[in-house]
Amino acid sequence: MFDSASAILLARIQFGFTVSFHFIFPAFSIGLASYLAVLNGLWLKTGKTLYLDLFKYWAKIFAVAFAMGVVSGIVMSYQFGTNWSVYSDRTGPILGPLMAYEVLTAFFLEAGFLGVMLFGMNRVGPRLHFLATAMVAIGTFISAFWILSVNSWMHTPTGFEIGANGQFLPAASWLEIIFNPSFPYRLLHTVTAAYLTTALVVGAVGAWHLLKDRGNPHARKMFSMAMWMAALVAPVQILLGDAHGLNTLEHQPQKIMAMEGHFESHPDGAPLILFGIPNAAEKRVDYAVEVPKLSSLILKHDLDAPLPGLDTIPDDEEPPVGVVFWSFRIMVGLGFLMLGLGMFSLAARWRGKLYEWPLLHKFAVAMGPAGFVAVIAGWITTEVGRQPYTVYNLLRTADSVSPLDAPAVGASLIAFVLIYFAVFGAGTWYLLRLMRVTPHAAEEDAAQTPIRSAGITPHQSVKNTGGVARREPVDHDARAVDDAGQKE
């Protein structure tokens, strides 16, 4: 069934499929870890158990999402050795150490404190528990730092030299490799997208429960916090996206040409094509709806600034215009919808109707998945726009793939599709079940007590009475009393 497909196309589809599944979980867990740290800090500062209840509610969801993100990420690393062995060999001296730094810093930090964060509330004290939560949040950011540095180097490679065997070797400074020209823009844009994604999910859950019970204080609080985040961060994200676009124009102009649909050069100002159907065969955008000279104003801040088109790029170096053109518009369109949600919430807050307007709540529920769609669309824009290279202008995708036949890659692709939809589909269904549960007072921890193995020292609730061991029931509520003497 794969005789008509090429091994390189199937390998790209396989990697794109697994990355898309993986990306949605870190995009959620990065922002959710910071949200948990904020809730924990607010509980310590104010003593209000409502914040503690929300922490426990979202900690259970974070545990599942974090686990699925780790598992889905491990699979990707194997593909570097199976489907992309030439790429791994050529770039290993540069990218290998950066990936190792991510494990040595971020992964160890997260693994060291995650258990304390999830299970240590009643064992280490509230301040140490807050420190553990903050360390997990910092660890997720450090992980994003290294992964995005690796990805950015593939787009704007610096600080390297080509060895005799064709490998990319580090040159004078690792800082030049790590802080390559596109890295700061990509880091800020991606991490901000993760925060917005989390805010939209939290806001959707809060709005869902407000539609059922407007008086629920936990739903009110999470919805209010999420709407503040959307209102404040969405405009910042749009500005960051603009700055990232200008950086891309400087270092990867053909990607911008594909995003804008500019098959032809425009010496007297380029139009902004809002919609249309890219026609790669005829080198034009059919049924284009455009605003004259607006693209030049956005990209060059000058209505009459000339902009080159894909007619200046050899055909074999052009990215797939249709995919990049539409994925970019999906990302931008959802970004402006997020801005609209934030502005709508500010209007409702100003009118004192934040918890009273069902239309706002329904809008927030509908926007719940928007962050995930936007980050996937942004990733497609970035990575497909880099084609036909894996290392921009230096290593072609066709020269990076392993010497495999199409049936071998196709068989593993089918296996990935079946297993991923089964495993991660079940995980996503379970996450939605957790979110459907109404948040309430006295939320339980992610796990009240770790499971004990047979043969260990009996729990202290087992008392020796007259030479006979007798187990008394454990009062979990009593154990849940914090240092201030308040019940959870």
From TrEMBL:
Localization terms from the record: Cell inner membrane; Cell membrane
Q: Which residues cross the membrane?
A: 20-45, 57-78, 98-121, 128-148, 192-211, 223-240, 323-347, 359-380, 409-432
Q: Is Repeat among this UniProt entry's keywords? A: no
Q: What Gene Ontology terms describe what this protein does at the molecular function level?
A: electron transfer activity; heme binding; metal ion binding; oxidoreductase activity, acting on diphenols and related substances as donors, oxygen as acceptor
What InterPro entries has UniProt attached to this entry?
A: Cyt-d_ubiquinol_oxidase_su_1
Q: Which residues form a coiled coil?
A: none
**What membrane topology does the UniProt entry give?**
Multi-pass membrane protein
Q: Does the keyword Transport apply?
A: yes
**In the UniProt record, which is one GO cellular component term?**
plasma membrane
Q: Which UniProt keywords apply?
A: Cell membrane, Electron transport, Heme, Iron, Membrane, Metal-binding, Transmembrane, Transmembrane helix, Transport
Instruction: Point to the regions of Basic and acidic residues compositional bias.
Output: 469-488
- Gene Ontology terms describing biological process: aerobic electron transport chain
UniProt superkingdom: Bacteria
One matching Pfam family is: Cyt_bd_oxida_I
Which parts of this chain are annotated as the region Disordered? 448-488
Please state which protein family the record places this protein in: Belongs to the cytochrome ubiquinol oxidase subunit 1 family.
What's this protein's name?
Answer: Putative Cytochrome bd2, subunit I
Organismal lineage: Bacteria, Pseudomonadati, Pseudomonadota, Alphaproteobacteria, Sphingomonadales
